[in-house]
Amino acid sequence: MRQTAGQITHFVSSMGTTGTSMGCSRYFKEVKPEVEIVGLQPAEGAQIPGIRRWPKEYLPSIFDEEGIFAGMSSGGAVSASLKIAAEAPGRVVVCIVCDRGDRYLSTGVFDPPPPAHHSCYYKNLDLTLSQHRKALPEDMPLFMLFTAPWCPDCTTTLPIVNEIFTGQGAGANFSLLRCIVGKTREEWKDPRHPFRSDTRWGPNGLSEIPTLACLGTASSPLVQPRVLSGLEKIDREQVRFKVESFLKEQG
């Protein structure tokens, strides 16, 4: 994250004990969920030191992988069953998967949706923002989080903001663009940094991180975004309260 200024899109790891794959995967799910994790196994019969082809029944216990490749109606049954099971401990819920997913590969139903959440480097902000808006539904609200991987306050705030925007809470139907303000603290603190004089983020530009901004909707951007600052040097519960209150104010 530091070396790419948050622009990483894929993480590739050979699979031995799978510790590297799982540890890095869990980290990226917190700080940048759209990063694709690619695990490598050798071809059948190949002998490569430090990497092996794991039979399903011998996968290491730390390797966490689960999926049901089902048709659409069966997927609905599985989804409903999981919700019913989560409502109360001890329930034993049964559903029938009567259609395989491979029959629907050509229909596009398994194609990934345009990403609702994305990250960019500050030098590419305007181009990324323009492209990101085109990929979103017209009425989807868009928010920007100014952050940096070397900033302790950002390390506290980012997982909470990600959780709010990707969960079922106040930000579930909003899009989040995370903007990395600099590869190093020195780059961010440079008085010539373009955000210092960019009055979109306040009368005196952007002066602190993390900062969250509401940019309007994809089709109706705000000329003057609404900004939430004051996320520095506060605990996790205060961050959550301030962010959720800000989202509710934006409607």
TrEMBL record:
Pfam family of the protein (one): TXD17-like_Trx
Cited PANTHER family: CYSTATHIONINE BETA-SYNTHASE
Protein name: Thioredoxin domain-containing protein
Domain of life: Eukaryota
Domain Thioredoxin residue range list: 149-218
